[in-house]
Design a protein that fits this description.
The protein is of the alpha+beta class. Helices cover 40% and strands 20% of the residues. The strands form four sheets. The chain has a five-stranded mixed sheet with strand order 5-6-1-7-8. Strands 9, 10, 11, 12 and 13 form a five-stranded antiparallel sheet that branches. It has a three-stranded mixed sheet with strand order 3-2-4. The two termini are 48 Å apart.
């Protein structure tokens, strides 16, 4: 039996949802999803295909859209997009079991349909048409689909070929991959080849997948190490990874992190408030997940490009999720590593190599009873926030002018959750 995988992508997902909710045709309407309240330079999360057809880039800034163009700016509504994504997943479940679905992103999912084609007496192409038709009929959204004999070929078929197909479906096997795409440029169009890898390949005289396929393997391993294995397999259209292996994968090392791009330049003291708010948020997340850590990292990015970003980490004497200890540790990290007279625009923190809460260690410098009381308070705060909303309980620092926790608590993924229009 020949394996058959498909990956379905929703065309201009966020923008299409906004069009459908307004009774507009997602394929012909001029609409951009962006939060104009942030700044004139805010990036569009999505634009409709009709705007792309005018030469406007998908991730453009508002000021880059031609002034004469009459278009709608829709503020992002992340909760709405998550809900629609769940509805789409429900449609997939009506055709295949959850074990054969891998959600790749909010608008892309892999489906292993190998064992379903006989049951439906359909080809992979016809099954894709039926699923895409259901999505359009029930939700008003257009989809594209890549089909392949492995996961890689399905993704490449989607990314490079499907958008040029009359029915937005493209299929590849190893032979058709070589025939259709061995001479395709640029290499960055292919899954898992970024600009840096492309530059290194170009410097060695490789500009296409065909070039990689015939390049001496020993030299590839010498220049790219373990990455050479992926480059060689993908150049020949091979991908050994299966859906089951994806489902069974468990990361050896886990971390929890949070980060944000600030909407204006913050000075040294203002950004410290942001770091403290994020440390409090991280502690809440760790307690909710029942994990602890003894290694913390901090990242600070500056507004002036002439100043490189700074990063610092620290090893704690304890393994903990105590907001008291995390707050103190991040404050010290910030004070010792951050430039004082340069405007700040990005901040990120993480708790690395997290472990189950049963591995918690107590500190000689903090009374264990105080740490246990802190944990119970944090657990209570999480319960109240879960029931009444994240802004149900706030700290005094959240009310300072530089604080933005109240606004961030109303967001999903750094964008407005939104409401029904």
């Amino acid at each position: 039996m020949i394996n058959q995988f498909m990956i379905i992508d929703l065309k201009s997902f966020y923008a299409s949802v906004e069009c459908v909710d307004r009774g507009l045709d997602p394929m012909t309407a001029l609409l951009a999803v962006a939060d104009k309240e942030r700044s004139k330079g805010t990036i569009c999360l999505a634009i409709t295909p009709a705007m792309k057809a005018l030469g406007i880039k998908n991730r453009c800034r508002i000021y880059e859209i031609p002034k004469h163009l009459d278009y709608i700016v829709a503020p992002p509504r992340m909760k709405r997009y998550v809900d629609i994504s769940a509805d789409i997943y429900g449609i997939y479940l009506s055709y295949v079991a959850k074990e054969d679905i891998h959600v790749y992103s909010i608008d892309e999912s892999f489906l292993d349909v190998t064992n379903y084609l006989g049951m439906y007496s359909l080809s992979a192409h016809d099954l894709a048409l039926r699923i895409m038709g259901d999505i359009r009929d029930k939700l008003g959204l257009r989809a594209t689909c890549g089909i392949g004999t492995n996961l890689y070929l399905a993704k490449v078929a989607l990314d490079i070929l499907a958008k040029h197909s009359p029915d937005f479906i493209a299929e590849l096997d190893e032979e058709s991959f070589k025939q259709k795409l061995w001479t395709h440029k640029p290499l960055t169009d292919f899954w898992r080849i970024g600009p840096g890898t492309q530059r290194r390949l170009n410097s060695l005289g490789m500009y296409t997948q065909g070039d990689i396929a015939i390049f001496p393997e020993k030299l590839l391993y010498k220049n790219f190490g373990v990455l050479a294995e992926y480059l060689i397999d993908h150049a020949w259209g091979r991908e050994p990874c299966t859906m089951q292996e994806i489902k069974n994968y468990r990361s050896r090392s886990k971390s929890l992190s949070c980060g944000q791009v600030l909407m204006r330049d913050y000075n040294f003291d203002e950004a410290l408030i942001i770091v403290k708010e994020m440390a409090d948020e991280l502690s809440l997340d760790m307690v909710a997940a029942h994990v602890v850590s003894s290694n913390l990292s901090l990242y600070v990015g500056y507004s002036a490009e002439t100043f490189p970003s700074t990063g610092a980490s620290t090893n704690l004497q304890v393994t903990t999720n105590s907001y008291r200890i995390l707050m103190d540790a991040y404050t010290k990290l910030y004070l010792r590593s951050t430039l004082r007279n340069v405007p700040i625009r990005r901040v990120g923190i993480s708790a690395n190599s997290v472990l189950d809460e049963c591995f918690e260690q107590y500190s000689f410098f903090v009374d264990p009873e105080i740490m246990e009381k802190d944990r119970k308070i944090t657990q209570s705060v999480n319960e109240i926030k879960a029931r009444y909303g994240k802004n149900a309980i706030l700290k005094g620092m959240d009310l300072l002018d530089a604080g933005n926790a109240i606004e961030r608590n109303a967001q999903i993924g750094g964008h407005k959750a939104g409401s029904i229009i």
